[in-house]
Structure formats: C-alpha cells, structure tokens
Amino acid sequence: MRRLNYILKRLLQMLPVLLVVTIMTFLMIHLIPGDPARIMAGEKARPDAVEAMRVKLGLNKPLWEQYGIYLKNLLTLDLGTSMKFSRPVVEMIRERLPVTVALTLFSTFLGLLFALPLGYLAGIQKDRMADHAIRISTLIAIAMPSFWVGLLLMILFSVNHRWLPAGGWDNTNLFTEFKCLILPAFTQSLMTAAILIRDMRNSVVDIIRQDYVDFAKSKGLSAGAVRRRHIIRNSMVSTVTLLSMRMAALLGGSVIIETVFALPGIGKLTYDAISARDYTVVQSVVFLFALLVLVVTLLTDILYSFLDPRVEF
Amino acid sequence: MKKLLALLCALCLLVPAFALAEEDTIVFGGTEPTYLEPNAPAIGGPEIHAVEQINEGLVRMSSDGVTVEPLLATDWTISEDGLTYTFNLVPGVVFSDGTPVKGEDWEWSLYRARDTETSEYRFIAEPIDTVEATDSQVVITLKAPNGAFLAELCSFNMVLGCKAYAESMTEEEYIMNPMGTGAYMLKEWNHGNYVLLEKNPNYRNADQVKTQYIKFQTVEDDNTRLMQLQSGQIDIMGDIPASLMDVVRNSEGLTLETFESTQIRYLLLNTTIEPFSDINVRKALVKGINRDEIAEVVYGEFGGATASVLSAAHTKYINTDLEVVPYDPEGAKADLEAAGYPDGIEFTLYASPNEVYQQIAIMLQSQLAPAGFKVNIVTEDGGTIYEHAQNLELEACMFQWSDDYYDPSEVLGWICDYDQSSAWFTGLNDVELDELQAAALIEQDDEKRVEMYKELQQRVYDNYNVIPLFHNSFAYAYNNSVQGLAVDTFSNYYCENIFKAE
CB of B94 within 8 A of CB of B180? Predict the structure, then answer.
C-alpha cells in the first residue's frame, strides 16, 4: 500500500516537470536562429514560396498561439505532423524506436556482460595486476571516440573480412537485423562497460571491508554464497542507478553511433529534425524522452527496494 | 552463459555474412530523399536522382550537358515571336499503372510546376502563360519571349504526372507516391532506410531496361558509405568528398569517375554596410586573395581558380577575357591605404561548419593578413547564415551555386537581379545590370544573347561584390561490375541502361 501511494505521488510530481519540459523545448527550438520556412522551402526558393511555406506551417502565428496549439494537441495525445516530411510524428517515431530500443538493450546486455565479472574481479584484486590492467583498459575505452572505434571495427569486420555489414539496417528478417546491430552495439557497450566497471570496482572495494562480510565468512558461509548474497548484491545498488541513467541516455539515441552505422534510429531522427528546424518532431521526441527518463528513474527507485530491503518508501 | 555465447558464435559463422547487393538490384548509397515529387518543397540531389528515374518531361538534356534532346516529344517548333512552343508527342505512352497519357495530364503537370505555392523551383516554370494540350500535341505559350525556356523544360520539375492519379489522394500522399512514365516506378519506401524503385513494365522501351530494381540506400556518413562500397553492400556512391577521392581511386575493384561540375564557391561582400560599401575596399580585398592556393588546398587536382561567375558547363556563354586577379598582398595594402584605411580593416566572415568552408575561411584569413585585412571567422550553421545574409546583416559570407540546367540565366539572374536575391545578398542595386539581365533573358538572337551574358559577367567582375573563388569536380564511384551509368555535368543520373555484368 505504501509502495502504491509512493508511486502515485511520484507520478503526480511528473506533471509539472513535463510542463516545464514542453515550455523549455518549445522556447529553445524556436529561439535558436535559422528560419524553418526557408529551410523547408529550399535554398533556391523565391521569397513568395518561402512565405507560402510559412503560412502552411502556421509559423506566421504569434509564438504563444503556436505554443497553445502544441499543448492542446499534446493533451489530446496528438503529436502532430512533421514539418519537413509531412508525415505523422507518431508514425516516424514508431518506425525509428524499435531500432534504438534494440540497440540500447543489446549494448546494455553486452556492457553488463563485460562489466559485472571485470568490475568484481578488479574490486577483489585491488591494486594487483588484474586491477591495474582492467582500470587502464576502462580509461582507454572511455577516451576512444566512438565514431573512430566504429570505423575501425567496420574496416576490420566488414571491409577486410566481410563478416558483418558495414552499417546499414537490413530488415529482411530478425537475424539480418541482429547482424546489423552487433558492431554498433559492441561499440556503444564499450563506454557503458567502462563506466560500470569503474563503479562496480569501487563498490566491491568498499563492501569487502564491511563487517557483515566478515561476519558472513565467520559464520561459515561458503565463499560463493558470500560473494552472491553479500558482495555482489550490495555493490549492485549504485551500479543499477548508473545503468538506468545510462540506458535512459542511450534510449534517446546516439547520434554518432546511428550516423556512423547508418541506422534509422531515434538519435538520427532527432539530429536531422534539429538541423532542419522541424519543430514538431523535436518537441515530440524531446517530450517523449523526458517522460521516458522520468519513468526509468521511478522504476529504478522501485527496484532499489527489491535489491536492498533497507530502502523504504 | 557460455552456451549462449557459443550458440551466437556458431550462428554468426553459419549464415552468410550479409546480403550483398543482388544481381538484379543496383544499390546507390546516399542521403535519404525527403519527398519523391519534383514540385515538393526543398528538392535536392537525393530527390532529383530518384525523381529522374520515375518522371519524364517533353525534352531532356543529353548526357553531353549541352544539347536538348527529345524525350516524350518527338519534335517541336518555336513561333517567330518566341512566344509559342509546339511539341508533337510520342504516341501511345502510358503511365506505369497502364493509364494512357492524355492532354489534360500535360496541362495539369505544367501548371502544377508553375503554381505549386511551396515548390522550390516553381520560378523555372514561371515564364509559362498557358498550356493547351491534346493527346498528340502540347502547345505552350509564354508570357514573354525567353531564350532559356527550352533548357528550362529539361529541368526535373517540368515533368509529366497523372492528373487523375494525383487527384485520387491528398497532396501529402502524392508527394511521397509519385507516378510517371519513366523507366522505373516506386515500389517501396522504407523511411529512414531505403527507397526501392522497380522497373516499369509499361515503359515504352521496357525491353531495353536491364536492371529490375534500383535501391537508394540511406547511408549519410561518407566514410561508412565508402566502406559499404568496398565491402559490396552498395554498388554506387555519389558525392564523394575531395578528401576521399584518392582512397577510392586506390581501392581495388572500384572505379572513380570525376566530372567537371557546375559547382562554384563564392565569397559575398555586403555592399550596404561598412567596410565593403566602398568599392575600393572590395577591389583591394580581391587582390589579397590567392584563389589558386585555395583551390589547390581544398580540392587539389580536382579544383581550380575561376574568374567568371559562370561554370564551365555554360561553354559558349563564358567570358574568357576575364582573368583571375593575381595574388598581390602588397598591392592590396597600398590600395587599402589609398582608399583611406592606412591601419587596415577588420571584418567578420561567416562560415558554416562544413569542412570546405572552414578550410576556405582559414586560408582567406591567412592570405588577407599581410594585405592589411584582419578576418574574424564566425562559424554558424548554414541555415542561420542564410537567414542573416538574406537580411543583409553580414559583412561577408560564403555560399555555393550549382546550376540546374544549361543556360546562364539562372545563376546570373540570381547574382544580378535585385528583386530575386538583393544581388545575392550583397545589396548591390545596380539598375543597369538589372536591365541588361532582363533584356538578355528575352533576347531571341543567340549571338546577341551570348554577348549580353558576357557583358553581364564583366560587370559583376568589376563590381567586386560576388567573388567566385574556385570550381571543382564532382566524383562518384562504383563497383567494377556496374556498367552503363551515365552522369552529366548537372549531376543528372541516367540509369535506364545500367546493369551489373557477371
């Protein structure tokens, strides 16, 4: 019951946050220089064509009226029509979202696959060879720009060996789609893994010195049980927070990864929409992701109570 | 976990790495089109390349880039007063869905080109007064004689669409689902990913079309596109940036083709505000620019300095008497002193983040320094610069121009006509220049017309407001197995004879 109340309270708190998000995105995209009517009409369009475009897009109305229309549409769950592509924004997001979600899940999975064992290993081997090697590797992984890693991987796996596609989204079937995701997901997972490893290591270093770990050992629990029940589980609390934040960021789509690997995802869509001053798309995507971040944060907070029974609402 | 990994690895090895471009499909890699109809807003290369395979006009530019050749017209006559153009049509042409072409389709299409309010290129159809068509003949009457009209009819937006088909749907649907009489028709548009064209079974020369599908794959990053070409995922890559041309040339199995494009980069000086309101300052500035060096650094062997504002594609119209002003920083400094600026001049140059403009800006900065010009470079995105330049708020900025058809009237109209573009954002309101430009457009005597355009180039040259910096080649590359692709100097792709050899 208390948990339910807490969730309801948190959901209500989201409303003002979302309202502020709509105002901020609306103002930001409208106030940056660049005339959308000109961009949509084209560089060689004569002034009368640009004016016709402005009227068609409703950009000749006062700013507050445009905001009112946007808010009204949002309340009726109508995200509007893309200014540039003349297509419903919902449809565009629906086409792009699966790619980004799949990429995010896959790269998070890979990230965890590297991070959990390596982070734990570095923690229990503190200041030994393995720890140093892992820490230096994470530094390198964080420092390498992802577009560069992506290109290198493509040269190796696509151009030299032709094992995997050099980017692109082959939607023939699930397997071809999976193959298209391997390189970008791996590239993206490097950064996730590096961040998680460093966090996990620090948590493990802290936790193995705790009294309850010594106590668990002294009461005769096996090393495996101590590791599972006491060390790993406790060190997961901060790792989960970090992971949720990272996932929320990745769901927003990585412009760089999606551009380098020619993936039709949300990041690329957002980037193109900002460049083209496609107000409706930018506003909708930003709003949706603000909502998503709020939901992910809420879910994380709920997850804490399962990971750590001491957390109460 | 180990089992899962092993399974994944095994799967990866079992299945062929990735779908190589198939034999009956030719894959172009490039930017995704926004719409697929030539009268939609903001049409550029990606849209045109697809549209040209779907829609056809009365005439088209032949692949030499100079001669107008018949397409859906067999022949034509022009009345003596230059106002009436009569085209006889190829008989029996049908649209890709089998509907026969009617006279009303021609009337609807050409009026659509002229009257679609938000069309970027409707100015090309503006000379048209009336269109009267039967099923065998199209008669176009112009508002005033126009020496460029036949060339304008070759443009990608002066094409035939099906009236009944277009009217059976909304405008928004139509601009994404065009239908024409061309060699290919739209099969599928997977937004964000690819546009697939299929051979038109009702095309009048269908037996000559050798390739079943043409696919325009969206791959925007140049490096990725090149790797896809190298790995065989795509067959043809257009718009190769200068920095990658050598890499492509040295890649095994690939052919690099370059051609003299109509693209020129220009420096525009705002004559309505200081310091460039003074023609002597503009003249001094030109002396302080080393165009050869800029062309060499930015495009190497694929570029060259240019003196005329016209591209080489305009052959007979080019004023060959004009010469590139030699680099003379000392002379420029002396001129600047004589103009009343002994301490030199400081000005702001706006450049978009594009690699080419950044390079040009930095070179101008260093070349102009010894001439007494201190150049502050401000980087803003292209759209922003365009807006400010249009409002005549910038001291100096850079833009490019590529021609859409073989006639100098388009670019010279843009540069000279104050009403069109404030003399290309330089604010120079030269009434004589304006009048000469208008007269050249309607001149019927070809020789006189050529002379008038040469005169116009000389005048722009002497005004020092629009300064052509350099021209450059365009490049495209393809897999050696691809044959029969022709590309003209205006970047039109002729795909009806394209095929993949065994």
Answer: no
User: Who among A42, A95, A151 is closest to B42 (CB)?
Assistant: A42
The whole-angstrom separation of Cα B309 and Cα B306 is: 8
**Distance between CA B285 and CA B483 in Å, rounded?**
48
- In three-state secondary structure terms, B74 is strand
H or E element: which one contains B263?
strand B254-269
The SS3 call for residue B315 is: helix
DSSP B128: E
Residues 6+ apart with CB under 8 A from B65: B313, B406, B488, B489, B490
User: How remote is the C-alpha of B490 from its chain's centroid?
Assistant: 6
- Choose, out of A46, A82, A146, A177, the residue to mutate when testing the contact with B (most B CBs < 10 Å): A46
Q: With the CA atoms of A150, A155, A161 and A165 taken in that order, what torsion angle do they form, in degrees rounded to the nearest 10?
A: 50
Put simply, the chain A residues between 173 and 202 with a CB less than 8 A from any chain B CB are 175-176, 179-180, 182
Closest CA to B166 of B335, B40, B301: B40
How far, CA to CA in Å, does A134 sit from each of A120, A190, A206? 11, 13, 18
Q: What is the pLDDT of residues B213-254, one digit of tens each?
A: 999 999 988 999 999 999 999 999 988 988 888 889 999 899
Q: Which of B458, B285, B465, B286 is nearest to B392 (CA)?
A: B465
Q: B61 with B406: CB under 8 angstroms? A: yes
Residues B415/B461, Cβ–Cβ less than 8 Å: no
Round to whole Å and give the CA distance between B110 and B87. 13
B192 with A158: Cβ contact below 8 A: no
pLDDT at residue A14, rounded to an integer: 87
Name the strand (E) or helix (H) holding B199.
strand B194-199
**β partners of residue B269:** B396
CA distance B338 to B342: 8
- The residue of chain B with its CA nearest to that of A182 is B12
At which residue do the structure tokens 């009489």 appear? B181
Q: Are A124 and A208 in contact (CB under 8 A)?
A: yes
Q: How many CB atoms lie within 10 A of CB A41?
A: 27
Q: How far is A81 from chain B (nearest CA, A)?
A: 11
- Cα distances from B31 to residues A39, B247, B487, in angstroms, run 17, 21, 18
Q: Which two tokens stand for residue B284?
A: 């001094």
List chain A residues with pLDDT less than 50.
none
Under the banding of pLDDT at 50, 70 and 90, the label for residue B14 is very low
Q: Which two tokens stand for residue A188?
A: 């993206």
- What angle do helix axes B242-249 and B222-230 make, rounded to 10 degrees? 10
Measure the CA–CA gap between A307 and A236, rounded to whole angstroms: 8
Please check whether residue B475 is in contact with residue B257, taking contact to mean a CB–CB distance below 8 angstroms: yes
Provide the CB-side half-sphere exposure for B345 (13 A, CA): 28
Amino acid at site A72: K
pLDDT band at residue B48 under the 50/70/90 scheme: very high
Kindly identify which residue of chain B lies nearest to residue A43, measuring between CA atoms.
B42
Inter-helix orientation angle B329-338/B279-287, to 10°: 170
Tokens at A247, concatenated: 């996932």
E strand spans, B212-253: 213-218, 236-237
Provide the shortest C-alpha distance from residue B233 to chain A (in Å).
Answer: 7
Q: Which residues 6+ apart lie within 8 Å of A77 measured at CB? A: none
Contacts of A175 in chain B (CB under 8 A): 11, 15
Decide: A301 and B224 in contact? Cβ < 8 Å: no
Rounded average pLDDT over B266-273: 96
Pairs across A and B, CB distance < 8 A: 160
CA distance B478 to B485: 9
Give residues with Cβ within 8 angstroms of B356, minimum separation 6. Answer: B242, B265, B298
Q: Give the Cβ contact number of residue A138 at 10 Å.
A: 24
